[in-house]
């Protein structure tokens, strides 16, 4: 290899949202720039003028192409096609100009709109795709209620996607199970997301509190969690449930009323700026997602000494939790099983202590320095 720093470009829509992709990309880019001395550039398409959700190293360059794909959110499906095609042409032209100027060693796509043309840009860089959701839920077109035009579009898009993914030098997914789902490809490798912080303390396991950290959105299954909690609270009178996350809570607040859940022992909070404290002041973590790309909150909770009770949903929880050792997996979407497993863990402190200790050890393997080495090895192999 040359003595000059490795030059890497990330392509992602925006960094102003406090989402998992934004957090992980920022974490990795900062580490690569600060510890490996890599020359990092991040190219954005949306959110110009908005502050970044997570602090970015001043060693990292940011280029904003100002495409504003977010305009598509307000368009009907048919209008969206025409607006998308126009913006896509602009994006391809502007990104090509930037990459030809930068001449990076490696260009990393978070597999958004640039995947349709990134391999055609002959800037000399190796192309890597990062997929942060499982295959089944990547660009979900909700085919069960889609019209004919939308179904045809989805089928054509899926075929085109495989063609583009085959051309990548590497596709990186988060779990071995998801790697297995891409049977048509032979360029897939697995690198999980890194732990986003190193806890300064661990749970004393004395608080009679269950905690969840998740967006208030359908895929996170807060409705399922509340239905399970309606059963749990009737058996575990001294315990409470606290949920923290972004999003609209109104529907879930209404569900609490419908289920006649005791509001003094169940509270839906907004996003917390001190998630470590939320974990440490609890004795059990619960994840009720219908699906997960990975489930970084599981690793965060484990690092703080919490055993985890989670739906065995595709694909994240099973890749992290060893059932019966550092947490419990429940039948996916089975509210009664989730309630039963939560009740069991609440009633068995010695099990919580045993699993919590093992959870801390499990979380060690997800530290940034360990996973950064895997990325370094991948970069250098290319």
Task: Please give a handful of descriptors for the protein shown.
six-stranded parallel beta sheet, 382 residues, Rossmann fold, 39% helix, 12 helices, seven-stranded parallel beta sheet, 13 strands
Give a written overview of the molecule.
With 382 residues, this protein is α/β, with parallel strands linked by helices. It has two domains: 7-194 and 367-381, Rossmann fold (3-Layer(aba) Sandwich), CATH 3.40.50; 209-364, Glycogen Phosphorylase B (Rossmann fold), CATH 3.40.50. It is 39% helix and 15% strand. The longest helix has 26 residues, at 77-102. The radius of gyration is 22 Å and the shape is globular.
Offer a quick outline of the entry.
The chain has 382 residues and is α/β, with parallel strands linked by helices. It contains twelve helices and 13 strands. Helix 5 crosses helix 10 and helix 8 packs across helix 11.
- The average pLDDT value, as a whole number, equals 93
Q: What is the straight-line distance between the termini?
A: 11 Å
How many separate structural domains? 2
Oligomer: single chain
List the SSEs and their pairings:
Blueprint: E1 7-11, H1 20-35, E2 39-44, E3 61-64, H2 77-102, E4 106-109, E5 126-130, H3 148-167, E6 170-173, H4 176-181, E7 188-190, E8 209-213, H5 222-232, E9 240-244, H6 250-258, E10 266-269, H7 275-280, E11 284-287, H8 296-303, E12 308-311, H9 316-320, E13 327-330, H10 335-347, H11 349-364, H12 368-381
Parallel strand pairs: 1-2, 1-4, 2-3, 4-5, 5-6, 6-7, 8-9, 8-11, 9-10, 11-12, 12-13
Helix pairs in contact: 5-10, 8-11
């Amino acid at each position: 290899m040359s003595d000059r720093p490795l030059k890497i470009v990330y392509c992602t829509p925006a960094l102003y949202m406090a989402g998992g992709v934004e957090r992980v990309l920022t974490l990795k880019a900062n580490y690569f720039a600060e510890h490996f001395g890599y020359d990092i550039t991040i190219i954005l398409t949306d959110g110009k003028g908005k502050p970044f959700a997570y602090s970015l190293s001043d060693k990292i360059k940011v280029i904003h192409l100002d495409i504003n794909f977010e305009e598509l959110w307000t368009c009907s499906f048919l209008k969206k096609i025409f607006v998308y095609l126009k913006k896509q042409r602009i994006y391809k032209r502007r990104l090509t100009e930037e990459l030809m100027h930068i001449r990076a060693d490696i260009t990393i796509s978070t597999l958004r709109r640039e995947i349709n043309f990134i391999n055609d840009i002959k800037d000399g860089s190796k192309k890597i795709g990062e997929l942060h959701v499982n295959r089944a839920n990547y660009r979900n077109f909700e085919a069960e209620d889609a019209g004919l035009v939308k179904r045809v579009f989805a089928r054509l898009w899926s075929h085109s996607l495989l063609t583009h993914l085959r051309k990548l030098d590497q596709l990186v997914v988060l779990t071995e199970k998801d790697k297995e789902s891409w049977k048509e490809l032979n360029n897939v490798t697995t690198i999980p997301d890194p732990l986003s912080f190193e806890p300064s303390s661990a749970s004393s396991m004395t608080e009679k509190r269950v905690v969840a950290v998740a967006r208030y959105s359908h895929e996170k299954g807060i409705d399922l969690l509340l239905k399970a909690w309606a059963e749990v609270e009737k058996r575990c009178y001294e315990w409470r449930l606290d949920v923290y996350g972004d999003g609209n809570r109104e529907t879930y607040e209404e569900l609490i009323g419908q289920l006649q859940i005791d509001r003094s022992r169940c509270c839906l909070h907004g996003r917390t700026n001190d998630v470590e404290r939320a974990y440490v002041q609890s004795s059990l973590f619960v994840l009720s997602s219908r699906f997960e790309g990975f489930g970084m909150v599981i690793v965060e909770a484990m690092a703080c000494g919490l055993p985890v009770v989670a739906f065995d949903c595709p694909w994240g929880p099973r890749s992290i939790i060893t059932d019966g050792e550092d947490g419990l997996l429940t039948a996916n979407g089975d509210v009664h099983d989730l309630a039963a497993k939560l009740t069991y863990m609440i009633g068995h402190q010695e099990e919580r202590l045993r699993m919590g200790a093992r959870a801390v050890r499990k979380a060690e393997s997800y530290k940034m320095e360990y996973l950064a080495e895997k990325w370094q090895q991948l970069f250098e192999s290319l």
